[in-house]
Amino acid sequence: MERMEKFLDNLPPMDLMRSEKMTLVQLIIPVETAHRAVSYLGELGLLQFRDLNAEKSPFQRTFVNQVKRCGEMSRKLRFFKDQISKAGLLSSVHPVVEPDVELEDLEIQLAEHEHELIEMNSNSEKLQQRYNELLEFKMVLQKAGGFLVSSNNHAVAEETELSENVYSNDDYVETSSLLEQEMRHADQSGLRFISGIICKSKALRFERMLFRATRGNMLFNQEPAGEEIMDPLSAEMVEKTVFVVFFSGEQARTKILKICEAFGANSYPVPEDISKQRQITREVLSRLSELETTLDAGVRHRNKALTSIGYHLTQWMSMVRREKAVYDTLNMLNFDVTKKCLVGEGWCPIFAKAQIQEALQQATFDSNSQVGVIFHVMDAFESPPTYFRTNHFTNAYQEIVDAYGVARYQEANPAVYTVITFPFLFAVMFGDWGHGICLLLGALVLIARESRLSTQKLGSFMEMLFGGRYVLLLMSLFSIYCGLIYNEFFSVPFHIFGGSAYKCRDATCSDAHSAGLIKFRDPYPFGVDPSWRGSRSELPFLNSLKMKLSILLGVAQMNLGIILSYFNARFFHDSLDIRYQFVPQMIFLNSLFGYLSLLIIIKWCTGSQADLYHVMIYMFLSPTDDLGENELFWGQRPLQIVLLLLALIAVPWMLFPKPFILKKLHSERFQGRTYGMLGSSEFDLDVEPDSSWQHQEEFNFSEVFVHQMIHSIEFVLGAVSNTASYLRLWALSLAHSELSTVFYEKVLLLAWGYDNIVIRLVGLAVFAFATAFILLMMETLSAFLHALRLHWVEFQNKFYHGDGYKFKPFSFALITEDDN
């Protein structure tokens, strides 16, 4: 035993097996160096600051004004980005790299750009509104003239007058003045009209309202404007309708003008005289031409200004994000008594201490400070954060584990084994080397475009798929491997590794009256013999094979979990967990399900016809009865009795000793006989030595006993339910195989049986659709989720606490655009 322990102690540590050793450090930074020092630490990204001002609100902190200024600059930059996007311009892909500007200079620069842009937008809106009104006036002149000419043929000229419109914009005094003479000479008692333009969608309701308001004493003519006009509010192109309303009386005129205002209809004065109409039309066209030129010049000038901003936008946004992050971090620090230094605390990996000290020295030198930054290690009174150094390949597997719970500081990390076991268990359920090749192609495409896709903003589904590209890679490779073992290529078997070891006794092996297959040569060298396909014993054989394989894999993985609990207990020097949890758990699990696994292997090796269901049931019901034809080896019955007794002993072994030993040790400590720290994983391993006495005074035996009883019952019941849970490997593998067979035989082969190219193409399309969306998407997701459950529940609950918290260092590399 001692040799084994020495051997284990001499093994080199694994990077991913235990989280990095962390230390709590204190920084005392002179005020003149603080900003630069925190910036350099952000570049390094290996120190997690603790918030020493947690009790203060954000508005009570030291650097709140600087944070507000950064927030205001972020708002301006988002405004520039929106304007560039609306203008249809693109921010520079390769932004101009200019030397870092001071925050104050950038603030002034951004304010100037914002003021300039707002002024340009305001002028542009006014010009666009004026242009729209002139355009509407032109349409009204063109369309309303036709109505007036037709009305002149049926009305006396002296009784007609120009419309007395209250024009909505004072800019048209010059235009409307051309009509004043005619309006003055008009007879107030005759027939009048109002002409204007309204949105096409409102025209019908507008006409009804006019009819009701005037009690039918009006004539409403309308005609589509023929051109779409930009709505200044929504910036969308809107269809409009030109209308002319003929009426009589001052009250009717007032009502109609109010209704026009309520419906957003613009009314324009149109002279009856054709020559005056032409004169006004020429003036309007002239002004439109001028405004078009002015608008184009304004758009070019605005686009030029936005393009200039776009060249620097990425750099400015990055700079402001960094500055805001620096000041947010400085707000987590406290001033010392002299108000000349900032005091900060934080966690860092032990390997990073030298790099952090070097960065702080560089900050002192660059700040020309006379006083250096003081960096020293503190005693930790709380559990450190968990930090694993991962790469592109291992990161996805670590995320799978962390989704269940972040590892407790320095406990064994399941991700080390998940890298292999997760894609392998997925493949056991998904095994088909045709489908595996499809997944492999998808994974290779994502990996080949890794550098390009990593810089793009992807959708939520695509981002998830890209993040798991290496998981997909191993899942596809293991699916090809398991597919070769199952000998399935889109459910079709192939003689890849030589000829079959069997031949049919008669015409067809699938005939219900056939005696089956006859073995005439050595076994098929790798995987399932292709002759099983289509035989009448295919399903019983494959069911038996996959079910037994599922149990073997499940028991092996659960044993691995219990073995890892031993390494955890040994690492934390917890001898109680080794003696009274690890040992009885190993005995209980392997006395029952380890023995079942042994029987499966012996049955495979000997070719015995023993019924394992019968053996396991009567091991409990009648352990002393003779096994008869179900006996697989000599001495099986006494071995079963011994294993059953061991399993029964293991339950109280797990339940009773540990709580009573803890109580005894506590009473000895309390009486002053011994002052050693208890190394129990059940009691706050991360509590400081100074507080151990106070903690142990609160020892509650009943609470400890109930906790141990729950833990023991959970393990005993879980050993049965978890083993049964691994049968999902068999169930999903069978479902995948049968679905593939149905799509192949009932869709593809059925369509191929017709001598019609159209039916064949339709069958091929349906088969491809079913394969892609059902087998490659839904079945992949189903197998992925089941593999996830097996790891989170059946494997990790044997040893993994998962109650730690992640190491989140202050790092510029981790700042995203969302932090703006």
TrEMBL record:
Keywords assigned: Coiled coil, Hydrogen ion transport, Ion transport, Membrane, Transmembrane, Transmembrane helix, Transport
Signal sequence coordinates: none
Topology of this chain in the membrane? Multi-pass membrane protein
Q: Which residues cross the membrane?
A: 424-447, 468-486, 549-567, 587-604, 639-656, 757-778
Which InterPro entries does the UniProt entry name for this protein? Answer: V-ATPase_116kDa_su, V-type_ATPase_116kDa_su_euka
Subcellular location(s) per record: Membrane
**Residue runs in coiled coils:** 103-130
Instruction: Return one GO MF term.
Output: ATPase binding
A single GO BP: vacuolar acidification
GO annotations of cellular component type: vacuolar proton-transporting V-type ATPase, V0 domain
Per the record, the similarity remark reads: Belongs to the V-ATPase 116 kDa subunit family.
Q: What does this protein do?
A: Essential component of the vacuolar proton pump (V-ATPase), a multimeric enzyme that catalyzes the translocation of protons across the membranes. Required for assembly and activity of the V-ATPase.
Identify this protein by name.
Answer: V-type proton ATPase subunit a
